[in-house]
Amino acid sequence: MYVGWHMKTNLVTVSPDTPVLKAREIMNTKKISHLPVTDGKARLLGIVTDRDLKEAWASPASTLSVYELTYVLQKLKVEAIMTKKVLTATPDMTIERAASILHAHRIGALPVIQNDKVVGIITSTDLMEVLLQALGMSEDSGRMFIIAKDRIGILAEVGRAMQEAGINIRSVMTLPLKGFEDFWQLIVRVNQASLEKAAQILGDRGFKVITKYVEDLTPYLP
Predict the structure, then answer these.
(1) Which residues pair with 59 in a beta bridge?
(2) Distance separating alpha carbons of residues 195 and 185, to the nearest angstrom
(3) pTM of the model
(4) Residue 103: left if φ>0, alpha if ψ -120 to 50, beta else—which one?
(5) Residue 141, SS3?
(6) What is the rounded average pLDDT of the residues 72-89?
(7) Distance of alpha carbon 161 from alpha carbon 10, whole angstroms
(8) Averaged pLDDT of the chain
(9) Which sequence ranges are marked TM in the entry (predicted)?
């Protein structure tokens, strides 16, 4: 999965001389939290976030009257509050890499650059949607997970068992089991109507299957 497949391309941008009040109006109207700042040729100059706008509103509030504050904000331009050193992505960047950048820097969006121009933006909300799609999340699906030792062939065994039972696997994900070295969670999502049958089949084959929260995982270790 790549950024170019999931980024938003119907971009809303502003110029550096856009009044801050106008930027806030755009964000409120479009229900967005990030505004790339560009020149007349779609080149990125900076980015303004809803946090930047809140800070601009709050910074002089303790010393100015409402009238004075409104006057100051009418004169204030986006250029004065935007972040100029912007972390960006490219269309061919993997979704995992984009998510890692957002997480590491505690930011909510990456403008996407191609040929020195802004061609899109990908946000943490977009990445959450990708994650839910990858997990096969839907109202008619159910999940189970198996705790397994790190070994070759376990995915093939689970897949073969489901194939023989005629059960379609919606999605599969593997994660290390926190607090248990060399153990992994194999998360399998199937049709809700097949969940009980799938768990029974895998249990009969010796797998430790969990379909609901349990506090103590020790009994489920292989």
Answers:
(1) none
(2) 17
(3) 0.75
(4) alpha
(5) strand
(6) 88
(7) 45
(8) 88
(9) none
**CA–CA gap between residue 152 and residue 215 (Å, rounded):** 28
Quick one: which of 29, 95, 83 has its CA closest to 53? 83
Q: What is the DSSP string of 7-55?
A: SB-S---B-TTSBHHHHHHHHHHHT-SEEEEE-TTS-EEEEEEHHHHHH
User: Mean pLDDT across the stretch 167-181?
Assistant: 87
Burial label for 206, CB within 10 Å (0-12, 13-18, 19+), is exposed
| Residue in this structure with the two tokens 């910074």, named with its chain if needed | 59
Q: Do residues 26 and 35 touch, judged by C-beta distance below 8 A?
A: yes
What is the spatial distance between Cα 159 and Cα 172, in angstroms, rounded to a whole number?
10
Sorted by sequence, the CB contacts under 8 Å of residue 93 that are 6+ apart come out as 2, 3
Q: Please give the Cα distance from 3 to 101 (Å, whole number).
A: 12
**Residue 164: what residue type?**
E
Domains of the chain: residue spans and CATH: 3-131 (3.10.580.10), 138-220 (3.30.70.260)
pLDDT of residue 71: 65
Backbone φ/ψ region at 70: left (φ over 0), alpha (ψ -120 to 50), beta = alpha
Query: How many CB atoms within 10 Å of residue 219?
Result: 9
Distance CA 188, CA 158 (A): 9
Sequence-distant (6+) residues with CB within 8 A of 221 are: 147, 180, 183, 208
CA-nearest of 46, 6, 10, 52 to 33 is: 52
Nearest 5°: CA angle at 182, between 104 and 146? 95
Collapsing DSSP to helix, strand or coil, 63 comes out as coil
